[in-house]
Amino acid sequence: MIKYLKSILCIMLLGAVLPSYAYSANDAADLSYRVVATVTDSSGSLKSSFEVGEEIFVKLSLSYTGAGRAPVYGFQGKLQFDSYVLQNTSVKTEKDISMKYSGGAINYVYLDMTASGKEDSMLQNIGTAVFQARNTGTFSFSLSNFILTNKDATHRYIEPFEEVQIIVGSGVKDTSKALLYEDIVAAKALLASVTIADNPKTIYEPDFWYPTQAAQKLREVIAEAEAVFDKEAALASEISAAVEKLSIGVSNFENSKIVGPKRWAGPDGSNSTIEFYYTVRASVEGGNGKIADGFEVQTIRATTSATIRMIPGEGFETEYIIINGEKFIGRDIYTIPEVSRDTTVVVTFAKKTPFTDIAHDDWFYSSVRYVYNKGLFTGTSETEFSPSGRMSRAMLATVLYRMENQPNVEFANVFSDVQSGQWYSEPIIWANQSKIVNGYGTGKFAPNDAITREQIAVMLYRYAKSKGSDLQTGISSLSFKDADEISDFAKESITWAVSKDIMKGNNDLTLNPSGLATRAEVATMLQRFNELE
């Protein structure tokens, strides 16, 4: 009898223990969830298509998919979105739930600190993220690293999230603007990934750093690029210029890297510094300035930086710094980030321009200075160059006429809209007589029409031909996405201009042949043309 009672007692104890054992992997049996994203507009109406500028509200909730129910001890996860298409403007948090935007995602975090859990009703609304549609495009909201925990911190089951597609505007991204955004993100990531300091004493791993001034200049270029990106009606030329300027800004920043002393393992296994020294010699070519005393010849420890100071003459500025044959944009104080051999530096100086609407850090600055000092361009006023202003057909004809030293021309009534006595009359007649321009075939030249990129290529090609220049291209076709948009009359000229690096495509592999060129862009192309070897 006693043996029988012991058996009954054992069975009862097992019955009490088994449920606990069975549920130890979860706080309740059949416990599973689904994350639901509800997308609405500002009126609360469900939507999936929006226009640029509209507000978008995304509310997340979790619903049960199994029969089990249990308190909430903690959860976390990320709601990911395309930050090119949408901009997160705010979050509407629920009690005790943290929501923060970071790196193109909304991060949700909740942790119960009472050890007793929180009512599961909180899962009906874990927060709303508010966005503004900033650009046309199509993408899907998605989740990553979304987990819900048991009391013992093990994970509960969450069913795969069904992505929610969003369409803004036409649903098609502007590829050039998308590229600008990617470049902005990459530039910011670069700044965040490196050491920024001035003359640090203890940085050896990594053994390099970037000056604070260089970092600040890159931040300013990024801010300018962001301003273009945020501009709703940004022109293709503005976007292209921003992409190029940002590329130059990143390149300048990378070139500012300063490398500290290298360390090698000594014979006893300890760290020791082995030092080598090189000579840096600086000289001036062409006069109009000098190298500061003490900077003409320097002895520099290997892999460290060398700084050279230039003193321009009155009314001049440092034009180029040529280091071992490689040309760099000049500055009055220039640092070679890392000296790894005996180095020869040649410095040239150029006359300053009177223009107050261009700055030394502008990507086109040196080209504007070049065409101004060569007498090819004048300003739009005594103190303004108007770099973003449109270049007209008459302006380019005039520039080419100046390049030819303004030969005498006998006026002829070739075009009905080019009358004698105008500032562009002789240049246009000369260009026609030199077979550089033909007009529009209706007896008109349209001198005040803004010139397109393909028209620039044609005029430069014909001018080069009139000079007997080498017109061999070395390429037979162009690989740009919009190559089929090049007019038939311009294909040969553009192929030549691209092969000679006079004209360059955009980073999105387009050429934009019918796009209108700014004065800054034409100045840059003319400098490249004149410097052809």
Description of the molecule:
This protein is of the alpha+beta class and 533 residues long. Among the domains are: 32-168, Immunoglobulin-like (Sandwich); 175-259, AF1782-like (Substrate Binding Domain Of Dnak, Chain:A, Domain 2); 265-352, no CATH class. The chain contains ten helices and 23 strands. The chain has helices spanning 2-22, 175-193, 212-230, 236-255, 365-373, 393-403, 425-433, 453-466, 491-499, 519-530, and strands at 32-40, 49-50, 55-64, 74-80, 86-92, 98-102, 105-111, 128-133, 137-148, 157-158, 164-168, 208-209, 258-259, 264-265, 271-272, 277-284, 289-291, 297-301, 306-312, 316-323, 326-329, 333-336, 343-351. The strands form six sheets. It has a six-stranded mixed β-sheet with strand order 2-11-9-4-7-6, with no helix packed on it. A hairpin with a 2-residue loop joins strand 6 (98-102) and strand 7 (105-111). It is flat. Mean pLDDT is 84; it is low at 3-24 and 262-273.
Summarize the structure.
With about 525 residues, the chain is α+β, with helices and mostly antiparallel strands. Helices cover about 25% and strands about 25% of the residues.
Sheet of most strands: 6 strands, mixed
Mean pLDDT: 84
Q: Quick one: how many beta strands?
A: 23
CATH first level of one domain: which class? Mainly Beta
Backbone CA Rg: 34 Å
Number of helices: 10
- Order of strands across the widest beta sheet? 2-11-9-4-7-6
Quote the distance from N terminus to C terminus. 113 Å
SS-based structural class? alpha+beta
Q: Tell me the β content.
A: 15-25%
What does the overall shape look like? Answer: flat
**Annotated CATH topology of one domain:** Immunoglobulin-like
- Poorly predicted regions: 3-24, 262-273
Helix content: 25-40%
What's the architecture of one domain, going by CATH? Sandwich
